[in-house]
Design brief:
The complex is a heterodimer. Chain A is an alpha/beta fold. Chain A has three domains: 39-154 and 196-290, Rossmann fold (3-Layer(aba) Sandwich); 293-382, Alpha-helical ferredoxin (Fumarate Reductase Iron-sulfur Protein, Chain B, domain 2, Orthogonal Bundle), CATH 1.10.1060; 387-450, no CATH class. Helix content of chain A is 50%, strand content 10%. Chain A has 24 helices and ten strands. Chain A has helices spanning 4-14, 18-37, 42-58, 60-73, 84-97, 109-114, 116-122, 132-140, 156-165, 177-194, 220-226, 244-258, 288-292, 308-312, 314-319, 330-340, 357-361, 368-378, 387-400, 403-411, 421-424, 431-434, 445-450, 460-467, and strands at residues 77-81, 102-105, 126-129, 197-200, 204-206, 211-216, 230-236, 240-241, 266-270, 278-284. Chain A has a six-stranded parallel sheet, with helices on both faces. A four-stranded mixed sheet of chain A has the order 8-5-6-9. In chain A, helix 3 packs across helix 12. The N and C termini of chain A lie far apart (64 Å). Chain B is an alpha/beta fold. Chain B has two domains: 2-117, Rossmann fold (3-Layer(aba) Sandwich); 129-244, no CATH class. Chain B contains 13 helices and eight strands. In chain B, the strands form two sheets. Chain B has a four-stranded parallel sheet with strand order 2-1-3-4, sandwiched between helices. In chain B, helix 12 links the parallel strand 7 and strand 8 (236-239). Chain B starts with a strand and ends with a helix. Classes of the chains: A alpha/beta, B alpha/beta. Chains A and B meet through helix 1, helix 2, helix 15, helix 17 and helix 18 of A and helix 1, helix 2, helix 3, helix 4 and helix 8 of B.
């Protein structure tokens, strides 16, 4: 009775970084808690965010067309892509039309989702990550383990070693974070200077103004877009918000939820091309309109990609992002993976104790745990439910539906107490791997009740009466 | 006005003393308590594992057992949350109209005592230091205490009730409402993560210096108890009704 997630999580827990991973991400949650508690209107902001998203999701076509009109009027080229293939091809076409060979890109989960970098590399176009964490992972050929803190699973020593292997000017044994960051800045600066084009993701697309808003802490998106004449900014179509007033709700929630900062260090608004330059916005569907059509899961389109649900998730913190089979881990990833391909990504659905903390931290109030519960109900239909779990549930159901059998089972439960050790703690008993078996009393409550052994207490009144 | 005592399956089989204490406590407070025979299980274990259909008959059985009661009260926050949150759907699926009497009448015993009975005093004595197990479904579905991640004023109905018990010192662990890792079938399917969560939780309870871990959910306590026994750690678990009924 195990899933790919449970096996990988077991491996992660045997390793040396599980405790540290849990504590590091708990610290991020604690920062988020402090920041959210410092705003008296925090819960109203969450309500407002959920209401705006509800509005936007139900007016997507209007808002996106309004966005397109305003952006086009400002001189931006607006493209639409229905899936990953069309998105990658659109980017490649724009770059090839300009003869661009070197692209600098800032962090974009959409690009990750659509496999943009390998697509471009296959066409001889370099796509260099400029977010420090993403760049480290690109050099290590690893995927992100967190959507906001992509390299959170790595230790600074591993990063120092990587930099030395890459031939960067880093002293042996010096793995100080600031030192390494300066080394990265020095060494990668030329990428910005030599780039033919820049690409960014987008946190919010404002329909009223036709602008794309990009939030970063490192300033790498701004650095990237400042030199080349050609800029491409892409977003999933759920990123559209009606106007700047609603944008303010989200920018107040985003960084506080994500990293416990009042606001991201940089918040760039891209409205029009620079003089002599070109600006392209690409609006991507890639399955999002299918989510829109699913009443049980439509709220997934509320997601700001802040990662708060991952930081609070007790399972994510103790299993690490790479234990999940979808590229986005944690509660949000379990759900997005199932929406992408339920048969393929069902192994993550076990990674939830249904503690519901994710729903409480979500700035846009997505019912993440309830949706995971709903996915569990349909696993059997996809033929991916655990056979052992199914048999156990069926046996349980059968006993429960026959009160006499249930009574007999409970009456005889104490026999378990005297089972030999080898029978109780073997590889078939998964409970026995972590726990000692519970001790079953000789008499159950129902037997005691039947035999008149459950006595009422004397009430206060009766006691008083006795005194009189 | 009759109160139906809901005895969840594992309370029946593993912790009968919790049922006994619940009965004593309710009768002491002048409640007219009935305990229907033939109770089985609310169906949550199957539903959380992904086999909700298997819980339909359990819901129908529950609904008919408690049909005559004004309130249904059980010493288990999670089972109560399941009845309240899912029985309407389950019964509708079983062909009934979308109406579930149990859903609106079912209470966790702490919630019922705190919000409905509202005792001002209890004769109970429990001269020990206890650490609160704020269980997830109690906190986030039944609102027994303020969730640490939400910006709402602090409250804790369990702490309020324990303040009526003479000699009982109440503390809360660091990460006061982080999940202990039980989660029904989760504890089996994801046993490595579940076990780690459980050990982390018990360690934090022990760090408070408490002699007992107490809470409104026998399931969380059962999970932590199994870990305590395995690790031979010097702390015990006790359901909150056993403390509230101590000395009755």
């Amino acid at each position: 009775m195990s899933t790919k997630h449970s096996v990988a999580a077991g491996r992660f827990l045997k390793g040396d970084r599980a405790v540290w991973h849990d504590e590091t991400l708990w610290m991020v949650r604690a920062k988020r808690d402090a920041m959210s508690h410092s705003l008296p209107e925090w819960e109203q902001l969450r309500d407002a965010a959920a209401a705006i998203k509800n509005y936007s999701n139900s007016h997507l076509a209007d808002l996106l067309e309004e966005f397109e009109r305003n952006a086009t009027a400002a001189g931006v080229h607006v493209h639409w892509a229905s899936d990953a293939e069309e998105f990658c091809a659109t980017v490649a076409d724009i770059l090839e039309a300009h003869g661009a060979k070197h692209l600098v890109k800032s962090k974009s989960m959409l690009a990750e989702e659509c496999g943009l970098t390998p697509y471009l590399e296959a066409r001889g176009i370099e796509a260099a990550e400029t977010d420090l964490g993403e760049r480290i992972l690109q050099l290590m050929h690893q995927r992100p383990s967190h959507i906001v803190l992509p390299a959170i699973h790595l230790r600074k020593e591993e990063i120092g070693d990587l930099f030395r292997r890459e031939g960067m000017h880093v002293d042996p044994g010096n793995n100080d974070q600031t030192y390494l960051t300066h080394a990265a800045r020095r060494d990668w600066r030329h990428k910005f200077l030599e780039a033919d084009a820049a690409m960014t993701g987008c946190n919010f697309a404002v329909a009223e103004t036709g602008e794309c808003v990009v939030c970063t802490n490192e300033g790498n998106a701004e650095m990237g877009t400042s030199q080349p004449k050609l800029q491409i900014t892409a977003f999933g179509l759920e990123k559209v918000v009606p106007d700047r007033r609603s944008l303010g709700v989200f920018t107040r929630l985003l960084a506080r939820s994500a990293t416990g900062q009042p606001v991201t260090t940089y918040t760039a608004h891209y409205r029009k091309p620079r003089p002599g330059g070109e600006l392209h916005f690409i609006i991507v569907d890639n399955g999002r309109t299918d989510i829109l059509a699913s009443p049980d899961h439509v709220k997934m389109l509320n997601c700001l990609r802040c990662g708060a649900c991952m930081n609070t998730c007790p399972v994510y913190r103790r299993s690490g992002g790479h234990s999940y089979t979808y590229f986005i881990p944690g509660p949000v990833g379990i759900n997005l993976g199932m929406l992408k391909d339920p048969a393929r990504y069902s192994d993550n659905v076990s990674a939830c104790s249904l503690c519901h903390s994710c729903q409480d931290v979500c700035p846009a109030k997505i019912d993440l745990a309830e949706q995971i519960y709903k996915w569990r109900q349909v696993l059997d239909g996809y033929g991916v439910a655990s056979a052992a779990k199914k048999h156990l549930s069926q046996a349980l159901e059968w006993v429960i539906d026959h009160p006499h059998l249930f009574g007999a089972a409970v009456r005889n439960a104490h026999l378990v107490n005297s089972l030999p050790h080898w029978l109780m703690y073997n590889r078939l008993n998964e409970w026995g791997k972590e726990h000692d078996m519970m001790h079953f009393p000789h008499e159950s409550f129902s037997e005691m009740w039947k035999r008149g052994k459950v006595m009422p207490a004397r009430t206060n009144k009766e006691n008083d009466g006795e005194k009189d | 006005m009759s109160v139906g005592l809901f005895i969840p399956c594992y309370v029946n089989a593993v912790f009968p003393q919790v049922g006994v204490a619940a009965y004593k406590l309710l009768t002491f407070l002048g409640q007219d308590v009935v305990c229907p025979e033939g109770q089985t299980c609310c169906g949550q274990p199957m539903a959380n594992a992904g086999f909700e259909d298997g819980a339909v008959q359990a819901a129908q059985h529950f609904e008919s057992l408690f049909a005559g009661c004004d309130y249904v009260v059980g010493p288990s926050a999670s089972c109560v949350a399941f009845v309240r949150g899912h029985y309407g759907d389950l019964l509708a699926r079983g062909g009934r109209e979308h109406f579930c009497a149990a859903e609106g009448r079912v209470y966790d015993i702490c919630e019922y005592l705190h919000d409905v009975v509202r005792p001002e005093s209890l004769p109970s004595i429990f001269p020990h230091k206890v650490s609160l197990q704020n269980s997830c479904h109690g906190v986030r579905l039944l609102h027994l205490s303020s969730p640490s991640e939400r910006n709402v004023p602090y409250y804790n109905k369990l702490r309020d009730l324990l303040s009526l018990v003479r000699g009982c010192e109440v503390v809360e662990p660091e990460r006061r409402d982080e999940c202990c890792g039980f989660g029904g079938m989760f504890a089996v399917e994801e046993h490595a993560v579940s076990g780690r969560m459980g050990r982390d939780k018990v360690r934090r309870h022990m760090a408070t210096g408490a002699e007992y871990i107490t809470g409104a959910d026998s399931s969380c306590l059962m999970h932590q108890n199994g870990i305590i026994a395995r690790e031979k750690w010097p702390i015990k678990t006790i359901h909150i009704v056993e403390i509230l009924a101590a000395g009755l």
